[in-house]
Specification:
The structure holds two protein chains of two kinds.
Chain A: H1 4-30, H2 33-57, H3 62-83, H4 88-115, H5 126-131, H6 139-158, H7 160-168, H8 170-175, H9 180-202, H10 204-221, H11 225-250, H12 254-275
Helix pairs in contact in A: 1-6, 1-9, 1-10, 1-11, 2-3, 2-4, 2-9, 2-10, 3-4, 3-9, 6-9, 9-10, 10-11, 10-12, 11-12
Chain B: E1 3-14, E2 17-28, E3 32-36, H1 43-50, E4 57-63, E5 75-78, H2 92-101, H3 113-125, H4 141-153, E6 159-162, H5 171-187, E7 191-196, E8 208-212, E9 216-220, H6 222-225, H7 228-235, E10 240-244, E11 247-251
Parallel strand pairs in B: 3-7, 3-8, 5-6, 6-7
Antiparallel strand pairs in B: 1-2, 1-4, 8-9, 10-11
Chain lengths: ~280, ~260
């Protein structure tokens, strides 16, 4: 009989794998891997801010909501800066730097607030946001993940071709009547929203790896769009589910296993390419 | 007389800096204008204004009698191929279909059948139908250029703007691209503006030539503009125009090394 927490973890990993498997090729072809780095900082700042407020008002579910909102606001600011002519590097660097500074200030306040509270739930600790705790996913967390994930999935699928064209030739898209601003905003919104939705499951560090490497690997191996998406989805789902099962069997963090597996696979491909 | 473009004392600026100034010219329907000038002369800038991408300018510029921004759907712009992100694994058909999709709503999960049929028809017209399923990134520079022209034709434009369609092409690919443009001129009668560093392969389809160097140097027929004293004033005294039989050739040396 499969244990309930493991079953929840597998369901969560299927949702995470689907979302990141679809998003990762876009991150690679659009060249916005650094955006996931900014999302990392935004989510951490949001989690710190959410924890401060959550501990103060006694509602730790604020961590999820505030980190989600902060991540979305930050990526939208970056999108707006790019639309206004700032380079992607500058927009991400400046925004992520500012948010990182605010996070340091936030930690200073958080420690003081924590010192005044004798107990808070393990599943809501800041460390969870860094490493991910898929085995501590509650039924409520799972519902949020599935509900939000289905909405994000539907939006991403509906605009997928437009995101691909946006990555291929934004000027051409505009000259043929496409709304570059709209598509860029939706794409960046999705990066922030998906990051906020799944961070508790995989953690901030693994989120960056899972958002970038499956798409990078698929891009190396596939020749067409279908192959790219199919391979990325397959790699992400396989990595996520197998790392959860292995993590359970070996009693090690699944997010760490997923990172090592994808890193090794990408490294092997690079070596093969060099030798070819 | 029906003019497609009317420009009068047009000065284009970027953040207040004058990129090109005092352009005055008119282009009639069906005419092809070759836009010549050294690097940084303002050729692409002028195309971007005509395409409605750049709106920071003074003076008068009308396309089909209206400001460019209002007639974007009647104009097609063919960018330089190096500006494309070829890491994206799109097929030739995907790229060409892009030219018609954005007339229909904002969501494009699938490419409608009629757009696929139209894309195949345009590819066939340009002799590229056999490449339809090939990955765009695997094409040669010349084939890519012609696919981008096919994409531009998908929206049935009335004005076609081509940014250096012959740059970085080998001689064979240049001939193919020039033949494509000749066919469009002869069979569709499109009004075209083509920026180029090398006017020679295109001279037969050019009704007008405009020479700019951050200002208007000359505008007129090829015979009026391609003269030693005019070419020499921009490209230096080593530049020449020669006539072989009835054909005019322009020899302008390596303008890329010119120091301002």
């Amino acid at each position: 009989m499969i244990e309930e927490y493991l079953f929840r973890a597998i369901l969560a990993s299927l949702m995470v794998g689907t979302l990141l498997g679809l998003l990762s090729p876009l991150i690679n072809v659009k060249g916005i891997a650094f955006l996931t780095h900014a999302t990392f900082h935004a989510l951490l700042f949001g989690a710190v801010l959410g924890m401060i407020l959550g501990l103060m008002v006694g509602n730790l579910s604020l961590i999820f909501w505030i980190s989600l909102i902060v991540a979305i606001v930050v990526v939208m600011v970056i999108a707006e800066m790019e639309i206004r002519g700032y380079s992607s590097d500058t927009a991400v660097g400046a925004t992520a730097g500012l948010v990182a500074g605010l996070t340091v200030l936030g930690f200073g306040i958080l420690y003081k607030v924590m010192a005044s509270k004798p107990y808070f739930g393990l599943s809501e600790s800041i460390v969870t946001y860094l490493t991910g705790e898929i085995f501590l996913i509650t039924l409520n967390d799972l519902w949020m993940l599935v509900l939000g994930g289905v909405i994000a999935f539907a939006i991403m699928l509906a605009f997928y071709r437009d995101f691909i064209y946006l990555s291929f030739d934004p000027e051409g898209l505009e000259s043929h009547g496409g709304n570059v601003r709209l598509y860029l905003m939706i794409l960046y919104f999705l990066v922030g929203a998906i990051g906020g939705l799944i961070v508790k499951t995989v953690g901030l560090i693994t989120l960056q790896v899972l958002a970038v490497l499956p798409g990078a690997i698929a891009l190396t191996l596939s020749k067409d769009l279908r192959g790219l998406i199919g391979l990325s989805l397959g790699i992400t789902l396989l990595t996520q589910v197998s790392s959860v099962i292995l993590g359970y069997l070996l009693d090690v963090p699944p997010s760490g296993l997923a990172t090592v597996f994808l890193g090794t696979l990408y490294g092997a491909l690079m070596v093969r390419r060099k030798l070819a | 007389m029906e003019y497609v473009i009317e420009a009068e004392n047009l000065t284009i600026t970027y953040n207040g800096y004058e990129a090109v100034k005092d352009l005055t010219f008119k282009l009639k329907k069906g005419e092809t204008m070759l836009l010549l000038g050294p690097n940084g002369a303002g050729k692409t800038t002028l195309l971007r204004v005509l395409a409605g991408f750049h709106t920071e300018y003074r003076g008068k510029i009308l396309v089909f009698g209206r400001p460019p921004l209002e007639v974007k759907d009647r104009v097609a712009y063919v960018p330089q191929t190096f500006s494309l992100n070829t890491r994206v694994p799109l097929s030739v058909l995907d790229v060409v279909a892009m030219g018609a999709l954005y007339r229909r709503g904002i969501v494009h999960f699938n490419v409608p059948r009629d757009i696929i049929d139209r894309a195949l028809e345009v590819l066939d017209f340009l002799g590229l139908k056999h490449l339809a399923e090939r990955p765009f990134r695997e094409l040669s520079s010349g084939q890519r250029q012609r696919v981008l022209i096919a994409r531009a034709l998908m929206s049935n434009p009335e004005l076609l703007l081509l940014d250096e369609p012959l740059s970085a092409l080998d001689p064979k690919a240049r001939i193919d691209a020039t033949s494509t443009l000749s066919k469009i001129k002869a069979e569709i009668g499109l009004t075209m503006i083509i920026t180029t560093h090398d006017v020679n392969p295109l001279i037969e389809i050019g009704d007008k030539v405009m020479l700019i160097d951050r200002r208007l140097v000359a505008f007129g027929t090829p015979e009026e503009v391609l003269r030693d004293e005019i070419i020499g004033s921009v490209y230096g005294p080593a530049s020449r125009t020669v006539k072989v039989g009835e054909r005019l050739y322009c020899i302008i040396g390596d303008v890329h090394l010119r120091v301002r």
